[in-house]
């Protein structure tokens, strides 16, 4: 029985799970969900993941949510090559360190930029207040500097000379602002060189496939204008502004 992976590739964590499973030739059934259409609130999906979030995984009768937990489960179950999640205690802890840090430091501001820059005008009819946009950009720029200086340093990848789970989780988050038209790699040669190494390790075809939707995300708001999720999205955006 193959894994069932419930994913929407507009979602950064979903892309990390998809990349890892495909790159390691792990057999899985791609259960595509549309967050913009609210399919994660369906009764059927609620039985898979009561948290109503993607990614979600089903392995026979066993169900699991949260992208990092899913990545580690797949890594251990299928005994993927050691560089993904090293058996060396200190290298493994460095992967854990990045995975623990990135949620608030990278994911939060990068996601905000995407929503503030692209989605806000369509969903609310108003532009994001400049002070909020500036604050999100400043937070992201600070985190990118920390990423380069503290995590990447002069290494090829976050944990040494080979790609790891940390790099996959990092790249999908840093690609998200590109969907809103903001190229965060511009003017950052170290970050750009790292991105190209990650892309090369993943494989250009897979990398381009998994990011095709987000890089064409300017088409997404048109679909959302008729979505039943609009009231929920407006409420979520309002929370971001508070």
UniProtKB/TrEMBL annotation:
User: What is this protein identified as?
Assistant: glutathione transferase
Superkingdom of the source? Eukaryota
Limits of the GST C-terminal domain: 88-220
Indicate the principal place this protein occupies in or around the cell: cytoplasm
- Looking at the record, the residues that make up the GST N-terminal domain are 1-82
**Record keywords: Transferase included?**
yes
The UniProt entry, under Pfam families, shows: GST_C, GST_N
Q: Which gene encodes it?
A: Gstt1_0
Reaction catalysed by this chain?
RX + glutathione = an S-substituted glutathione + a halide anion + H(+)
Compartment(s) where it occurs, according to its Swiss-Prot or TrEMBL record: Cytoplasm
Could you say which EC number(s) this protein's record lists? 2.5.1.18
Listed A to Z, the keywords are: Cytoplasm, Transferase
Any one GO MF annotation of this record: transferase activity
Q: Family per UniProt?
A: Belongs to the GST superfamily. Theta family.
Native source species: Polyodon spathula
């Amino acid at each position: 029985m193959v894994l069932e992976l419930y994913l929407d590739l507009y979602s950064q964590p979903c892309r990390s799970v998809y990349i890892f499973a495909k790159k390691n030739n792990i057999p899985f059934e791609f259960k595509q969900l549309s967050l913009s259409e609210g399919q994660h609130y369906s009764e059927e999906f609620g039985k898979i993941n009561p948290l109503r979030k993607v990614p979600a995984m089903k392995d026979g009768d066993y169900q699991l949510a949260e992208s990092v937990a899913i990545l580690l489960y797949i890594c251990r179950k299928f005994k993927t090559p050691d560089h993904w999640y090293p058996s060396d205690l200190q290298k493994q802890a460095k992967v854990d360190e990045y995975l623990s840090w990135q949620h608030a430091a990278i994911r939060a501001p990068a996601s905000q930029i995407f929503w503030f820059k692209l989605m806000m005008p369509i969903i609310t009819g108003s532009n994001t207040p400049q002070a909020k946009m500036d604050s999100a950009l400043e937070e992201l720029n600070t985190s990118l500097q920390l990423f380069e200086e503290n995590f990447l340093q002069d290494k090829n990848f976050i944990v040494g000379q080979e790609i790891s789970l940390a790099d996959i989780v990092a790249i999908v988050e840093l690609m998200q602002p590109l969907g809103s038209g903001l190229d965060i790699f511009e003017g950052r040669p170290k970050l750009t060189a790292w991105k190209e190494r990650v892309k090369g390790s993943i494989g250009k075809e897979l990398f381009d496939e998994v990011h095709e939707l987000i890089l064409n995300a300017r088409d997404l708001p048109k679909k959302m204008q008729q979505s039943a999720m609009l009231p929920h999205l407006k409420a979520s955006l309002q929370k971001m502004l508070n």
